[in-house]
Amino acid sequence: MAAAAARLLIRGSHQTLPISSVGTGKQSCIGNALLTLSSGCNSRLKTQRRHAAHFTFQPDPVPTQYGSTQKMNLFQSITSALDNTLASDPTAVIFGEDVAFGGVFRCTVGLRDKYGKDRVFNTPLCEQGIVGFGIGAAVAGATAIAEIQFADYIFPAFDQIVNEAAKYRYRSGNLFDCGNLTIRAPWGCVGHGSLYHSQSPEAFFAHCPGIKIVIPRGPTQAKGLLLSCIADNNPCIFFEPKILYRAAVEQVPVDAYTIPLSQAEVLQEGSDVTLVAWGTQIHVLREVANMAQEKLGVSCEVIDLRTILPWDNETVCKVSGHHSIVSIIVGHFIIGI
Amino acid sequence: MLTNISTVLRACAQRNGAAAVVSARNYADFTSQATFEIKKSDVFKLDEAPATEVVMTRDEGLQYYRTMQTMRRMELKADQLYKQKIIRGFCHLYDGQEACAVGIEASIKPTDHLITAYRAHGYTLTRGGTVKEIMAELTGRRGGIAKGKGGSMHMYCKNFYGGNGIVGAQVPLGAGVALACKYKGSDELCVCLYGDGAANQGQIFETYNMAALWKLPVIFICENNRYGMGTSVERAAASTDYFKRGEFIPGLRVDGMDILCVREATRFAAEHCRSGKGPILMELQTYRYHGHSMSDPGVSYRTREEIQEVRSKSDPISLLKDRLLSNNMASVEELKEIDVDVRKEIEDAAQFATTDPEPPLEELCNHIFSNNPPVEVRGTNPWAKLKSKDYILD
Q1: Which uninterrupted H or E stretch holds B12?
Q2: Which cofactor does the UniProt annotation name (chain A) (predicted)?
Q3: What average pLDDT score do residues A3-25 get?
Q4: Which residues of B touch A197 (CB under 8 A)?
Q5: Residue A78 and residue A37 share a domain
Q6: Residues A319 and A241 in one domain
Q7: Would residue A62 count as lying in a domain?
Q8: In this structure, is residue A333 part of a structural domain?
Q9: Mean pLDDT, rounded, of chain A
Q10: Do B228 and A126 touch (CB under 8 A)?
Q11: Which of A24, A128, A181, B315 is the most buried (most CB within 10 A)?
């Protein structure tokens, strides 16, 4: 797979945009670069004193195949997905820090009142305990949905996820598994989160076979993908871009529906370069693709990876020979395969 | 300082004539020290308890008052600056808990070590930071105690290891520092603080085991302010007797709103550690007036009446003030002067913190590694290459 990607990169001939990976923090990465290339825009950059996260959320078109829809933002779409799950699956339980009153991002508002305190309950402050407990509950047959309050706090649970959850099925020869486990965590930078409320740790987990990692770009995607994760027979980590919790508003189907995992989505066809990203960066890339078309005459293909692990390499690599792939990573990146 | 106060008072008296006769008191009129009865601390696996009759001198009293008042005003100023968006990010305020920081510092030496969690402004002050440095760090300026790169949760100074954002992560670190003290044979100890929320973290129990096994000179202190963010202790802990959680580590439960209780208990604990008996655990029962952080109003999980009650009955500064006044150890005017002084200090510091320039861009990426040739660091776009200067000499 790595060799195939490398061959594609080498084949990329007449490209002006270099292959690069852009890092954490501010969202207006390639966008800014293109602005500096074009004249007359420098003054706007200079007058900006505070470079707050700058992107415009681009809503998806209203889905018609899943029934009636309702206007929801990201956290409401998560609540809706959890509501659907608790209603249809009597073994489903939601637990984590402060989920009972609705959660610090309001993702679980109303669920405890509706389904009872034995199904939506708080845990003490212990991430390792939360995930370990979740694995056990999942192995015993409950649909366990664990919340880690911020992705930055997932590290005490890293051992449980990588050593216990991911390898359970394999080491027991398929006798046991914790496929009923889904871990949810708010993800990504917001501008003022600093070291411990901004991290995007998917890279650390992306090299661990046995778990699935999913990151949505908006409410409609989030609900479908979360329901897929819950239904999936493998332990899944679902990262929710926290900056989109309120900012992303779409018409989301009220009933349950699933969006397949490990399927990347081509949002925009293009012939010159392929831009791959996930989560919040998709909205930046869509802007960038438009700008590239307008100002440079470059036709960009935009792909939302959606599932980071196992990733859809078929779709991404199914590009014509003269493409270069630009992968925009928001997160920890020093070396990558 | 005492002669100055009395000179000033006498000068006032001369100006105002008869009306100011009452205020022209010589310092010799004050009691130089007094004995106080304090609440008995609950003990666990200990044969003795900290003393219940303690002596406080006038000088000590005034110093505690000044430090606590500085801490209080500093936190309130930080609240103000945060609401004006001059301080951004996170801000966890310590007002209400002053007696803990000041009481602990009163019984340890500057050569001892201390580590705490994110509610760290008070400890930064007692461990040697100046108000100016602390406020400039809150506003993220180059005059800040961590050069403006740390912010509210990451303040450090000599023998003070911060300032740690991740809940509970500082406790194993504290045990490590204590190990170093024991290894060096230096008779130093480490005070390792955490909150009631953190008390349920697994790594705390791992640390208890290591500390007791190797008899490390560490004082574990659980600052129990009754709420872990918005969760009350009853809803989070199977056992709210945090001082007993060490199981095989002796424990004390102390009234954390009374500075003399805290001081005496710390003295007792420090002696325990320094005599080679190993770790000891102290639970300070205290209270925070503000919410968990500036984004928490603090009234959705507790009543305003509760906050008011604590403020009126157990405020640490008021308790100390009453003690000083009723035992003739200070005058109202004297304390008012200290208040005025403190207010000025805070105003000056706030002024500095607001006007000091931000750290230069060249500083942004320094100190990622150490002793490395300059590394290129990715910026917000691929053409903005920043450099990390990591030379040890820097």
Answers
A1: helix B2-16
A2: thiamine diphosphate
A3: 35
A4: 90
A5: no
A6: no
A7: no
A8: no
A9: 83
A10: no
A11: A181
CB contact under 8 A, A128 and B202: yes
- Is B87 within 8 Å of chain A by CB? no
More confident residue, B368 or B35: B35
B183 touches chain A (CB under 8 A): no
Same domain assignment for residues A322 and A180: no
Active site residue A287: no
Residue A64, in any domain of the structure: no
Same domain, A176 and A301: no
DSSP string, A292-334: IIIII---EEEEE--EEET--HHHHH---TT-EEEE---S--S
Rg, Å, chain A Cα set: 20
Q: What is the span of the domain harbouring residue A207?
A: 69-253
CB–CB of A125 and B198 under 8 A? Answer: yes
**Interface predicted TM-score (ipTM) of this complex, two decimals:** 0.77
Q: Tell me: pLDDT of A332 over 80.
A: no
Q: Are residues A42 and A117 in the same domain?
A: no
> Are both A13 and A112 inside the same structural domain?
no
State yes or no: pLDDT of B56 exceeds 90: yes
Q: Give me the domains of chain B, ranges plus CATH numbers.
A: 33-359 (3.40.50.970), 362-393 (no CATH)
Mean pLDDT of A118-133: 94
Question: Is A59 inside any structural domain?
Answer: no
User: Of B19-33, B145-159, B325-339, which gets the smallest average pLDDT?
Assistant: B19-33
- CB contacts of B201 in chain A (<8 Å) are 125-126, 156
Q: Look at the block and give the residue holding tokens 């450090």.
A: B156
Amino acid at B204: I
Instruction: Among A98, A192, A196, select the one facing B165 at the smallest CB separation.
Output: A196
Q: What distance in Å separates the CA atoms of residue A105 and residue A247, rounded to the nearest whole number? A: 13
Same domain, A185 and A323: no
Window 349-378 of B, Cβ < 8 Å to A: 378
CB B224 within 8 A of CB B196: yes
The one catalytic residue in A197, A265, A322, A332 is A197
Q: Which residues of B touch A128 (CB under 8 A)?
A: 202
Region of poorest pLDDT, from A49-63, B71-85, B157-171: A49-63
Q: Respond yes or no: is residue A332 known to be catalytic.
A: no
